[in-house]
Amino acid sequence: MSVLSFAKRFLAHPDQVGAIAATSRAVAEVVCAAAHVNESKAVVELGPGDGAITGTVLDHLNPEAKFFAIEISSEFCEAMAIRFPGVKVYNDSAEHIGKYLAENELDHCDAVVSGLPWASFPHELQVSLLDALYDAMAPGARFTTYTYLFSPYLKKGRRFRAMLEERFGEITATPLVWANVPPAFVYVAQK
Ligand SMILES: C[S@@+](CC[C@H](N)C(=O)[O-])C[C@H]1O[C@@H](n2cnc3c(N)ncnc32)[C@H](O)[C@@H]1O
User: Fold this and answer.
1) Mutation test of ligand 1: which of 5, 70, 114, 116 has the most ligand atoms closer than 8 Å to its C-beta?
2) Labelling 60: which of 31, 67, 110, 167 has CA 20 to 30 A away?
3) Domain covering 3-190: architecture
4) What's the pTM?
5) What pLDDT was estimated at residue 1?
6) What 3-state class would DSSP assign to 131?
């Protein structure tokens, strides 16, 4: 998918897409390292979009590990099918992660890599998504989600971090990655 197509999808569904451009490789590397993708047996990506992070997940994924993604937009699912024909991408809301773990004969996963635009979501959706992904995670599993430079200064950004802390306890924030538009960092939560 071109830069222009990504931006067009953002303009059509700003609350779902939440970013004008896809994530950089530099952030994708930080996301995958923080999630310990290389050590995980089951990895789930939420909101892959057109696959900006997926390629890096695949580069680090253990060949024995199971991996699938859940993407709400059928257009992005089509883009994923072209770019990564071997990757299972379910066209659904990430709240249904439990259903897709079961379809893949998994009780839990060890890593959840999220590209979801949390700050754009209404509170009820944030709660149901976080509940579902928390239940989906094995004890010790890691959840990572990137956010932008300015989010600690915004009420919505602070509220989302507080929601993570309520569930997971201590949250780690990586250093800022300046090679991203806008600069971003990653929250890391361990169950
Ligand atoms: C900011 S884009 C991130 C795309 C890509 N991961 C990246 O980092 O460039 C957010 C993605 O989350 C998807 N999305 C939004 N709400 C979702 C939901 N409830 N379940 C699954 N995917 C969702 C959007 O369609 C979009 O692909």
Assistant:
1) 116
2) 167
3) 3-Layer(aba) Sandwich (3.40)
4) 0.94
5) 55
6) helix
